[in-house]
Amino acid sequence: MNQENEARINHLLGQMTVDEKIGQLNQYFPRKSLNAGLLRQGLAGSVINASGALSGQGYSGSGNAEGCNHLQQLALEARLKIPLIFGRDVIHGYRTVFPIPLGQAAAFNPELAGQAAAVAAREASADGIKWTFAPMIDIARDPRWGRVAEGSGEDPFLGAQMAAALVRGFQGEELSAQDKLVACAKHFVGYGASEGGRDYDQGEISEPTLRDVYLPPYQAAVQAGVGTLMAAFIDLNGIPATANRHLLTDVLRGEYGFDGFVVSDWDSVKELVNHGIAEDEAHASLLALRAGVEMDMVSGVYLKTLAGSLRDGKISLEEIDEAVRRILRIKLRAGLFERPFTDITRAAREQLTPESRQLARKFARESMVLLKNDSDLLPLSGFGTVLIAGNFVHAGAELYGTWTADGRPEDVTPLDEALRQVAPPDVRLRFAESPDLALSFAQYADAVVLVLGEHPLRSGENANVSDLGLPPGQAELVAAMAALGKPLVLVVFAGRPLAIPRQVAQADAVLYAWHPGIEGAAALGEILFGLEAPSGRLPITFPRATGQVPVYYNQKNSGRPLSVDGEFRTRYVDLPTAPLFPFGYGLTYTRFRYDHLRLSAETLRGQLEISADLTNTGTRPGRELAQLYIRDLVGSLTRPVRELKDYQYVTLDPGETRRVRFKINEEQLAFTRADGTRGVEPGQFQVWIAPDSASGLPGEFRL
Ligand code: BGC
Questions:
Q1: How many structural domains are present in the chain?
Q2: Residue 137 belongs to what domain range?
């Protein structure tokens, strides 16, 4: 903690009235018209979506910096001149839209994600924003939940790495630099476990699972210095996250040492009444503030009720002061007192630069996952006429995906045009969006690429599905096209894993493109025509059917796993037990062989090295993601059948062999034990160096 800032905060607290203090806890949304009086009296600490709400209200100039500056001016007319912090959902890019977060995770490249976050911070801050409601770091094991698109998938290790990299990317080294944003790790915590994949619903997570699966990304975000967190909408184990003092205070502040502030989710303080845990708005405010929610997003109930509760002796001034202190701390750290206004000339220079587009292209490429490639159909070559068909043929802003309020349709090259630009000159491309046209054009094509999948509005907040199949009509098109017998490539755009076993069987090649962002179409073209090779891996298990959900790789073994003989085993009678594609899976345009796993010792003392030879056995150079998994064979609580502990990309020429080396130490084997403490338990461990979570070279060691 910075002593100078703390002294400044104390000084300010000494001057503030109760109303001004409570004002800092209030995040204001200028819904229809602007309440200038509220700002002039210092009754808002933050404004959300100022730029969106102000558009069309006569502000000119670059972006919306001018609008934010105007609001800031009003706030600085207040007695104590405490600047506002402008918040907005800058989720996977701003003007330069990067792949959706789930696609970003598929690149298994946190560093690249950090670079993209830094671009988003620069662009958004040029429009007056200083606080993003990102990264979303909720572990998700249920692809029916629409918000699976917004996070890094199912794995706590990858999730924690992505969380830390994104926080560092948004915030940079120096939060007060004009091109950085305060990050907000959300939604604390367990939001991904809402039952049935229904957003906002309840969930139950045991304490060990919470600690070993759902919390690690949050701990990583705090360690990376995240300035704020957002409380989740979920009712977790009977306590809505917005009112959970144990998690928000004991764990987050007590155990992790978090010194920033927590914002509620949209209206979630007020919604404690609907949850049936608060009698009325005043009670809701008390519960949330006491739990550790310092800022009330939009609902206005802190402003409305806290002063009364203070008068009635239901809350102390110290409790309010502590909340204000945390908010002022972040405002000071963010440099808002020194630089409350945004230079309105920045946007034109700093948004959507050629470099940021290039980064978006690279990221889109790295995010795509090749799931099938029979007879090496991809990359396409030797086909005179290629038909591109499906509902994404003319996709423009549809490539952006969910949460892209600031991506503009005019900035994206539509898919057909982008493919034309990238395709080799000797390939004739034909395009057809409607199924009828596609089927008739296909007669004259030498190969067919179907580009289909989910519209972005079918994923993201509150966009849950009960059926993980392709959207209506698309399966029929795939089947009809497959019946023609032409070489068939399926490119799937989606915000979630779709359960598409039949379509995978019908197509010769399948490429999963998620929603790839502003340069996604060109990136796709580069992969289809072999200018680049795919290298993404699944950050989440792909189910065979909706009814197989939840299905994830780091499950427990059960007493009757498939690996033992017998009839009564953990299975479905109408479905294979294995998922369609396991976590970590992905192909490329060459093949790799793993041999000669070696461990530096039989017993882990301090550290152990695990290594294997990796050989490119194909005819093209390629990039392979070698993954390190372990299994703790016996524990005081049952342990997952596999856990990812590390990974690394290796690029090899045809015929080249290289030894990949991983190190593992005791801390990496720790877990939440039966007595609730975290630590290791001596015993036997399995280890794999593997191309995915369902295969690999096995070894064993003892601890
Ligand atoms: C979402 C948050 C988001 C907030 C502000 C809520 O509905 O759950 O993720 O940051 O709105 O837009």
A1: 3
A2: 3-348
